[in-house]
Design brief:
One of its GO terms (molecular function) is glutamate-1-semialdehyde 2,1-aminomutase activity. Pathway: Porphyrin-containing compound metabolism; protoporphyrin-IX biosynthesis; 5-aminolevulinate from L-glutamyl-tRNA(Glu): step 2/2. Pfam families: Aminotran_3. One of its GO terms (cellular component) is cytoplasm. By secondary structure, this protein is of the alpha/beta class. The chain folds into 2 domains: 169 residues, Aspartate Aminotransferase, domain 1; 248 residues, 3-Layer(aba) Sandwich (Aspartate Aminotransferase, domain 2), CATH 3.40.640. The chain contains 15 helices and 14 strands. The strands form 3 sheets. Strands 4-10-9-8-7-5-6 form a 7-stranded mixed β-sheet, sandwiched between helices. Strands 1-2-3-13 form a 4-stranded mixed β-sheet. A 3-stranded antiparallel β-sheet has the order 11-12-14, covered by helices on one side. The radius of gyration is 21 Å and the shape is globular. Bound molecules: pyridoxal-5'-phosphate. Pyridoxal-5'-phosphate (PLP) binds next to helix 4.
Length: 428
């Protein structure tokens, strides 16, 4: 396989782009080597600028749940473009997408569209503070909530537990109201509530994708709900990644919890920049123009993005691929585990609906500390072997792999061969 054109573009890109990318994970820092530059994609496949074709398990980090270039979405977007691309005034499309989203989440009466998952979370946190009149937010190590200052507390490291910023440029004051707990450890949350009486909200990924896939235990998630209620704090479920991924609606329903505020993104924009936050009327009425919490956006509710969202969710409802996702993910899990066993590689596989990922460890993964026992050097080797065998994976041990509804038995067979060959490389 040659990557000559990607290598050339990388060098050229470094001149005027930071690291030749617009989002750091795309730089392949944690797996080494030259990042791939993409030319185009269709269905379950993506092609790089050297003409190498891969089964795509990145899917733009989640949004492309129908695969690339779904005909109905493409048609809806093209039609919308012809009517004008942005108006700075309301459209019927916003109302239609809001209805689809609210109907899919019990307890969500109103939603506000923004332009990214980060914006959804920062607005949800402002809303929680506005509604409760309190300041502190509990987050979990290993959960990523976008790049707003207050959520950029280094997950899982020693620094994280001290609430020190995990990025240069974030002032310590920006994270002094962020408290860190351990995922699946209710006691670590209780400890904060015992110490502080000004906690506005607890935010979590109801199933994580940003430390790899980790599900909450029943005791943990139900305990969080009860505790937040008891302490008059809100529960924010960040479903930017999980929303509409494993059922039509949220992961909340599958894990048995109902959030006070839900954050969305990725799938609801069908490949365009859309985020959203929603809640019951009483909470949402804090938001301007109904209430005193200001939040705005020039391109929020953009008509093209709304058309992509409406057509994606409508098609998703019609296709109802969720049972298929479980079956495919189970097959993938079995492939990974049986090849690992054959080659004597320590491997744990976690999955949830259309999200799955292997950890190169022999320890059950229930939180970020467990995830970090994974051998990242082995992952890097596996990643490049999978590339050589025609599979595009997220270039990080700690990112979930995604399935699209376009995956068929043909791709599964190719995946089986690629996994087998890549596991053999690791065992060498
Ligand atoms: N929240 C979660 C759970 C995410 O996975 C992400 C991005 O991956 C975000 C928030 C931030 O979304 P965005 O990258 O659209 O700003």
């Amino acid at each position: 396989m040659n990557f000559n054109n990607s290598e050339k573009l990388y060098k050229k890109g470094c001149e005027n782009l930071v690291g030749a990318v617009n989002s750091p994970v795309r730089a392949f820092a944690s797996v080494g080597g030259n990042p791939l530059f993409i030319d185009k994609a269709k269905g379950a496949y993506i092609k790089d600028v050297d003409g190498n074709k891969y089964i795509d398990l990145v899917l733009s980090y989640g949004p492309m749940i129908l695969g690339h270039r779904n005909k109905k979405v493409e048609k809806a977007v093209t039609k919308a473009i012809k009517k004008g691309t942005s108006f700075g005034a309301s459209t019927n499309a916003e109302i239609k997408l809001a209805k689809i989203v609210c109907d899919a989440f019990p307890g969500m009466d109103k939603v506000r569209f923004v332009n990214s998952g980060t914006e959804a979370v920062l607005s949800a946190i402002r809303l929680a503070r506005a509604h409760t009149g309190k300041d502190k937010i509990v987050k979990f190590s290993g959960c990523y909530h976008g790049h707003m200052d207050a959520m950029l507390v280094a997950a899982g490291s020693g620094l994280a537990t001290l609430s020190l910023p995990g990025s240069k440029g974030v002032p310590s004051q920006a994270v002094e109201n962020t408290l860190i707990s351990e995922y699946n450890n209710l006691e670590s949350v209780k400890a904060h509530f015992e110490k502080h009486d000004d906690i506005a909200a607890v935010i979590l990924e109801p199933v994580t994708g940003n430390m790899g896939v980790v599900q909450p235990s029943d005791e943990f998630i139900k305990g969080l709900r009860a505790l937040t209620k008891e302490k008059n704090a809100l529960l924010i479920c960040d479903e930017v990644m999980t929303g509409f991924r494993s059922k039509f609606g949220g992961a909340q329903e599958l894990v048995g919890v109902e959030a006070d505020i839900t954050c969305l993104g990725k799938v609801i924009g069908g490949g365009f920049p859309v985020g959203a936050y929603g809640a019951c009327n009483e909470i949402m009425e804090n938001v301007a123009p109904l209430g005193g919490m200001y939040q705005a956006g020039t391109l929020s509710g953009n008509p093209i993005a709304m058309a992509a969202g409406i057509s994606t969710l409508t098609e998703l409802k019609n296709q109802n691929p969720y049972d298929k996702f479980n079956t495919v993910a189970e097959k993938l899990e079995n492939m990974l585990l049986s090849s690992a066993k054959k080659y004597g590689v320590d491997l744990v596989v976690n999955r949830f609906g259309s999200m799955i990922n292997p950890f190169f460890t022999n320890k059950e993964v229930k939180n970020f500390a467990d995830a970090q026992t994974s051998d990242t050097a082995k992952f890097a080797k596996f990643f490049w072997a999978m590339i050589e065998n025609g599979v595009f994976l997220p270039p990080s041990q700690f990112e979930a792999w995604f399935l699209s509804s376009t995956i068929t038995i043909k791709e599964l067979k190719k995946l089986e061969i690629a996994i087998e060959k890549s596991m053999a490389v690791i065992a060498e």
